[in-house]
Amino acid sequence: MLMRTDPFRELDRLAQQVFDSARPAAMQMDAYRAGDDLIVHFDLPGIDPESIDLDVEQSVLNVRAERRSPAPEGADVIVAERPTGTFTRQLFLGDTLDTERIDAAYDAGVLTLRIPVAERAKPRRIQISGGARKQLAS
């Protein structure tokens, strides 16, 4: 059995629940470009994949997830330090990304998005046409 040994920690936890419950919590993320993709990892430990919602409207990606308490209704909770509730994050995507082909996977508490760079934004070689110089008639 776990014992409560720090009364101030409990007060901090209660204050956080009271004052922070009105706003959704942000989720931690990493993002980097690998080849022709933008890779984004969101830390969502303990989240049921069915509670994750992803949507893109214009160039804004919205990520929403919910973590519920594992304690059954009416249980006498001894310690509750893991945050529960709704977690949200918005990413503003540039028009150089192909939002029609976003791939999402959830594994080991990490949501990974792979967003391809749009074809029009990829570097390309421009061929220069050569021709004989026009000679002016005298």
TrEMBL record:
| Domain of life where this protein originates | Bacteria
Membrane-spanning segments: none
InterPro entries xrefs: A-crystallin/Hsp20_dom, HSP20-like_chaperone, Small_HSP
In terms of Pfam families, this protein maps to: HSP20
Cross-referenced PROSITE patterns, in alphabetical order? SHSP
- Residue ranges annotated for the SHSP domain, each copy included: 20-131
**Which family does the similarity line name?**
Belongs to the small heat shock protein (HSP20) family.
What is the official name of this protein in its record?
Answer: Hsp20/alpha crystallin family protein
Q: Please report the organism this UniProt entry assigns to the protein.
A: Streptomyces montanus
